Amino acid sequence: MFRRLALPAAVLAAAVAVLGAVPATAAPAAGAVCFWTGAGQHGTSWCYTPPGYTDVPESLHDRAASFRSDADTAVYAIDWARDTCYHRLIRAHDLADNWPWGARLDGVSDTTMGCQVG
What we know:
- A five-stranded mixed sheet has the order 3-8-5-6-9, with no helix packed on it.
- The chain has one helix and nine strands, in the order H-E-E-E-E-E-E-E-E-E.
- It is an alpha+beta fold.
């Protein structure tokens, strides 16, 4: 009886390992905006789901090369400058495969945070 349980457990573990490995080019989850370190939605990724403000992880801080929005609402990329801050509109369901503004990305919000247009 023990062998019968061991085989399904091994199969289950292998399936979880395979299914848990999501490629970096995976589509954003519904309602999310995802950012990648590489052009064309490649490299390390991270996704933001509104509402609120969230700092981007260090891997994407000033290093986002592309993004894709699956959100039904606009969000704002935020750049915290020395004496002020700037925002960049990301429209609902927009994408950029080569996003120069990502070199300024510090956070993401569902509001402009009172920042100037950048």
